[in-house]
Amino acid sequence: MTEKTFSQAELAEFDGSNGKKAYVAIDGVVYDVTDVKAWSEGKHHGQTAGKDLSAVIVKAPHKKSVLAKLPVVGKYTG
């Protein structure tokens, strides 16, 4: 199976709203946060799924430590 590559427009479709999957991009990798309780409805501490959050995660208390627990669904090209 080939890995999916997401453009900015394609990633934006996965914002977690109305039952959609919730994906976020960090450093060129797309992660599925759909089943993460803290990402209910695609929102988490003022952030919204469907975006590149590379600049945001480095400011979070947990930094990138949470990424190892998330399923990778593809690559982000921006």
From TrEMBL:
Pfam families: Cyt-b5. Residues 6-77 form the Cytochrome b5 heme-binding domain. InterPro entries: Cyt_B5-like_heme/steroid-bd, Cyt_B5-like_heme/steroid_sf. This is Cytochrome b5 domain-containing protein.
